[in-house]
Amino acid sequence: MALNNTYDARLQQETAVGAGVQILLLALLGPAIGMGVAGWLSGLAFAFATWAVLSRALHRSALRSFGPANRVTLGRATLVGGVTALVADSFQSTPPVTLLVGLTAVALLLDGVDGKVARRTGTCSTLGARFDMEVDAFLILVLSVYVSTLLGPWVLLIGAMRYAFVAAAHFAPWLNAPLPPSFARKTVAAVQGIALLIAGSSLLPHPAELTVVLAALGSLVWSFGRDVAWLWRHGRISAAEMAVEPDSAPAGTVQAKVLELAAR
Q1: CA 59 to chain centre
Q2: Could you list the residue ranges that cross the membrane (predicted)?
Q3: DSSP letter assigned to residue 175
Q4: pTM for this predicted structure
Q5: What is the dihedral of CA 45, 30, 138, 67, to 10 degrees?
Q6: Nearest to 198 by CA among 100, 87, 57, 51
Q7: Phi then psi dihedrals of residue 122, to 5 deg
Q8: How many Å separate Cα 175 from the centre of its chain?
């Protein structure tokens, strides 16, 4: 018990340091750009929420070390917190586009680094993968909010689609079944951040930015549609087939996962 408490204390120290770095970044950005109340509140809220959620997840996990990959992801989360503050502040004053694009670009460039670090150091974990995914999703949401002020509210569909999928899974448990790995899915996800970054930079003519973001949205709709169709075929149908012999579903398969969810 004492050893577990020691590990937990070390993990909590890591999250506290992350929150501290986030606040330090805000302290540097605030005076430099004359950040308003909205920016400060959004940045601080992001720092507190990240610390609280991550601390709780680590406490419930079996991890004994935070690990180098999670440190990279935490660094990305710090950058995303800065982007969040800048986007919130943009509703009150002209945003520093160069700074916004710079922070976003670094966060996007680091998006595959944590995974590579985890594989090379043998520190892959379910929590780390989920942490990485949530940071990515929130960055896309924040960017879509910013770009929506330039191109129109329809851009919010890009940031909201993943959260809508998660909400739908509460009413349709078959959507929670695991999906097979897909390079196309990863590519489409990466395209969203790049497209929003291009549009947010305002370097291209308006029609070109519109085309880029529309293409990104179209690819995202295709990707989610393909995954939902796969889950429908291999989730609901497989569950119905296995209902006659529920004990015959091999552990770890889609059928077993669906049957487990249906039993809850």
Answers
A1: 20
A2: 20-53
A3: G
A4: 0.84
A5: -80
A6: 100
A7: 65, 35
A8: 18
Can you tell me which residue has the tokens 């889950």?
Answer: 231
Least Cα distance to 138 among 61, 58, 51, 50 occurs for: 50
Q: Which of 45-49, 174-178, 205-209 has the lowest mean pLDDT?
A: 174-178
Q: Which residue has the tokens 């929150």?
A: 19
Alpha-carbon span 73 to 114, nearest angstrom: 6
Report yes or no: 52 and 22 within 8 Å, Cβ to Cβ: no
Residue 196 has pLDDT above 70, yes or no: yes
Distance CA 257, CA 251 (A): 8
184-213 mean pLDDT? 94
Residue 238 — pLDDT band, cuts 50, 70, 90? low
Dihedral angle of Cα 190, 154, 157, 85, to the nearest 10 degrees: 70
**Lowest-pLDDT range, 3-12, 38-47, 82-91, 165-174?**
3-12
Percent of the chain with pLDDT over 90: 57
Given a cut of 90, is residue 225 above it in pLDDT? yes
Q: CA distances (Å), 75 to each of 10, 31, 179, in order?
A: 17, 22, 28
For the chain, domain boundaries: 1-138, 152-264
H runs (alpha helix) in the chain: 2-33, 37-60, 68-89, 97-109, 113-121, 126-151, 156-171, 183-201, 206-231, 237-242, 254-263
Say if CB 147 and CB 185 are below 8 A apart.
no
